[in-house]
Design a protein that fits this description.
The chain has about 450 residues and is an alpha/beta fold. Helices cover about 25% and strands about 25% of the residues. It folds into 2 domains: about 1-105 and about 255-455, Aminopeptidase (3-Layer(aba) Sandwich), CATH 3.40.630; about 105-240, Aminopeptidase i, Domain 2, CATH 2.30.250.
Length: about 450
């Protein structure tokens, strides 16, 4: 009668040697993506390079849309939509994997550079849900673009290479932190105090009052040809410096910045590239921006950009997009919290995702009374269960911690608003939104296998 009970097992106990090798190969490619894609722009640029090598071409009106055609649309360098046209017309629906490529970080303010006590700093404005104390006293790298008055776009990247300088936000020593220690974590570190140290050497023979600031401006101009006024039209951000690393003596985990949600972006993207035969239904990957601040803006999931992408494809086939949406399915791929034994009080262990137990499927996300979620129907969950079982994908059902503890949202509800059946699924994560997040290699691999199974299915 054991079959009557639901039982789970650590994935590593089920793996063959071939499975283990496949996990390591997949993880190596994923870590390269993390290192190359520290920002949305870098991630999109890298993925386009990989896609074009795999035969994808930019979509333009009138392009020959036929089964097997591989196309993509680059949305302003910050979001990306890709598709492999299926055998069936789009009014029969598409199978979609949607994730996001933005991550919490520290954006620079429009006029960030200032001098205080003969040291130069950059003022920041944090982006997304950060715990500010985690971002101090750690090496930071500067990435982004600046647009000059003549329209030239200048790429900026400083702090990743070992021979480059990095930046940091200083903190109090324990000897002087008595008053700070009395404050809550939220009160101890204020957004306006998150100023990054950028220099301390004065400009020689300068008539300017702020000679250290002048020295920094001279260095920036020498390397990039930009002035302080060009900061007004810049998009610059500070992110943790350094590469993704294996974690643990057994190398079973991956640590690095931006895994929420590039771990799922890579899973969906790599799965699309590995669709060998022409799929029955068109396979689509959506890599959106701005999820961490509510999916706003022209590159976020609320934008019509994704809708117009599919609208154009439907027009090419002479079908209506509303029929495409009604018959489509979307795997909304985003991370969830993994059960952390160091903090068991925030999770209901029986219904929380566990590390190394596979893809986390979340029927609903949201907060408290399921606020802000699409809540997939039982029929949708049942279909996904069948597809994953047929593809031998290890998965688990999960929630985002205890009911009244907090919660969170994904892009799922914005797909549901378009009348697309959708369910959340992703990779359990420790230290989510921290500068160094942790995921399990085995779970990453199962997310990839799940996306591939969806693209090959007939949902």
């Amino acid at each position: 009668m054991d079959y009557l009970q639901y039982k789970q097992k650590n994935i590593w106990e089920t793996f063959t040697e071939a499975d283990r090798q496949a996990v390591e190969t997949y993880s190596a490619g994923y870590k390269t993506f993390l290192d190359q894609g520290k920002t949305e722009r870098q991630a999109v640029r890298y993925l386009i390079e990989q896609a074009e090598q795999a035969g994808f071409v930019p979509y333009s009106p009138g392009v020959d849309i036929k089964p097997g055609t591989k196309i993509y649309v680059n949305n302003r360098g910050r979001a990306l939509y890709l598709a492999i046209m299926g055998k069936k017309p789009l009014d029969q629906g598409a199978n979609i994997a949607a994730a996001h490529v933005d991550s919490p970080r520290l954006d620079l303010k429009p006029l960030p550079l200032f001098e205080a006590s003969e040291m130069a700093y950059l003022k920041t404005h944090y982006y997304g849900g950060v715990r500010k104390y985690q971002w101090v006293a750690t090496p930071l790298a500067l990435h982004g673009v600046a647009v000059k008055l003549d329209g030239e776009v200048v790429d900026i990247s400083v702090g990743e290479a070992e021979d480059e300088p990095c930046f940091t936000i200083t903190d109090l020593p324990p000897h002087l932190s008595r008053d700070q220690n009395k404050k809550s974590l939220a009160e101890g570190f204020q957004g306006e105090g998150m100023n990054a140290l950028i220099g301390g050497q004065p400009q020689k023979d300068s008539a300017e009052k702020e000679k250290v600031k002048q020295r920094i401006l001279a260095l920036i101009h020498d390397k990039y040809g930009i002035t302080e006024a060009d900061f007004l039209t810049a998009e610059l951000m500070l992110v943790p410096a350094g590469k993704a690393r294996d974690v643990g003596l057994d190398r079973s985990f991956i640590g690095g910045y931006g895994q929420d949600d590039r771990v799922c972006s890579w899973a969906g993207f790599q799965a699309l590239l590995d669709v060998e035969d022409i799929p029955e239904q068109t396979a689509v990957v959506v890599l959106a921006d701005k999820e961490e601040i509510g999916s706003e803006g022209v590159t976020g999931m609320k934008s019509q950009a994704f809708e117009l992408f599919l609208h154009d494809l439907c027009d090419e086939q002479g079908v209506k997009i509303r029929h495409c949406f009604a018959n489509s399915f979307c795997l909304s791929m985003d991370v969830c919290n993994g059960f952390d034994p160091n903090y068991p009080e925030v999770s209901e262990k029986r219904n929380n995702a566990k590390m190394n137990y596979g893809l986390s499927v979340m029927k609903y996300t949201g907060a408290r009374g399921k606020g802000g979620t699409s809540d997939a129907t039982a029929e949708v969950v049942g279909k996904v269960r069948q597809v994953l079982a047929a593809a031998n994908v290890t998965w688990q059902m999960a929630e985002l911690g205890k009911i009244d503890q907090g919660g969170g949202g994904t892009v799922a509800k914005y797909l549901a608003e378009r009348n697309i059946d959708v369910i959340d699924a992703g990779v359990p994560t420790l230290s989510m939104h921290a500068p160094f997040e942790i995921v399990a290699k085995a779970d990453c691999y199962m997310a990839y296998k799940a996306a591939l199974a969806i693209f090959r299915s007939k949902l």
